[in-house]
Amino acid sequence: MIDIRWKAALFICALSIVSVFLWLISSLVTALVVFALGLLLYLVNHIRWIHQLNNWLKTPDIRQVPEGSGLWEDVYSSLLKYERSNTLKQTELNSALERFQIVANAIPDGLVILSAANTIEWCTSHAEYQLGLDLKTDKNLPIVNLLRSSHFIAYLYNEVYDEPFKLKDVKSTESTLEIWLIPLATKQKLLISRDVTQIEKVDAMRRDFIANVSHELRTPLTVVGGFIETLSDMEGAIPSNIRSYFGMMQDQTTRMRRLIEDLLTLSHIESNTQAPDNNPINMSMLMNMLLNDANALSQGKHKITAQTNPHFDLTGAVDELQSALGNLVSNAIRYTPEGGEINISWQLHHNQGVFSVSDNGIGIDQQHIHRLTERFYRVDRGRSRETGGTGLGLSIVKHILTRHQAKLEITSELGVGSTFSAVFPKARIIQK
Q1: What pLDDT is attached to residue 285?
Q2: Where's the Histidine kinase domain (predicted)?
C-alpha cells in the first residue's frame, strides 16, 4: 500500500506537469487557471470526505464505515481495522468483566471498592445484602453516609487497618459483620465484609463458660488458700516433716488464683463491646507510677530508667492502659536477669505516641514473636512457671490496645534483649 503522503505528492506533481504543458502550448493564464481549479477540486473533495468522517464519528458504527476513494480509501480502511480491533478488545474486556462479576458475587464475603474520597465505586451483591447498599442508587455516595456507626467512621479515617472492625449488622442487631479495609496502590480501598455471627456466638459461649468456671473456682480456692495460710501460721499445727508440702500447696494455690484473675480480666475485656473511656491521661504522672511499681517489683535487682516527653499526653481508659503498660514493665523485670537494665520510654514518633519497654534480658527467638499474644503461649514453660507467669498477660495487653486503636510491636534478639512498644494513633494524642 502506497503512503497517503506519496499519493498527495503524486497528484500535485501530475497537476503541475499538466499546467506546465498547457503553459507551453497555450498561455500562462490558462495554465494557472487549470492548476487553481485542480487544487480547488482537490480541496473540495477532501472537505467532503472530512464532513462524512465527522458525521460518522458522531455515531460510530462499524457496519456503516464510509468507503472513501483516493487518499481517503486508505484512511477509512485503517479506521475500519482499528474499529474492528477496538470492538474485539471491548468484547473481550466485557467478557472478562462478566466473569469477574460472576466470581466476585460467588464469594460469600461482601466486596466494596472505595475511592480515595471514600465514595462507593463498585460492590458485590453480598455487600449490598450485608451492608444494606444498592449500587444503582448508592454509587459515588460516601460510605459514611450509609454506614453511620461512629466507631466505623473512626476506624475508616484512622487509617490503621491492621485489625478488623466488628460492626453490628445494619438490618439486625443480632448479626455481626467483620470489616476489613485494604489500601490499594491507586489510593482506593477494598472493603471486605464477612458475616461472623456464628463465630461470635461460639466465642461468647466460650467466654461465658470461662468466666463462669473461673468465678466458681475463685471462691473455693480462696477458702483453701486461707486454710493453708492459717495452718501454716499456727505454731505446732503442722509437723515439721510435712511443712514444706504446705509451702508448695500455698504457692500452687496462689498461682491458680492469679490465673483465674487473669482469665476473668481477659473475659471481661473481650465481652466489653462498649468503646473505652476517652479521658485525658497525664502521661508524666502515669510514667512515674509505672517507674515506682517497677522499682518495687525489682527490689533493686535491676537498673531501671525512664524517659518521658512531657509535651503530649494520651486519651483513653486510664485503668485499662495502666494495666496493659504495667504488664509490659513487669514482664521485662521478670525476664531480665539480676543486674540487667530496663528502660521505660514515652515519646512522639511520626505523630504517633509510642510507649516502649526495652531490656537487655534473655531475648526471644524470632520464630516465637508472632505467637506471643496467643493465650497460654509460652516460649519456655519452665521459666514462665518459675517467674509466676500465667501466659495471658500479653493477650490482655493486645486486647486493651486494640480497644484503643493501638498496636503492639515487638522486636527481640536472643541473648541481647527485647523491646515491647505500644503504638497509639495520632487521634489519641493531646499536644500540650
Answers
A1: 92
A2: 212-428
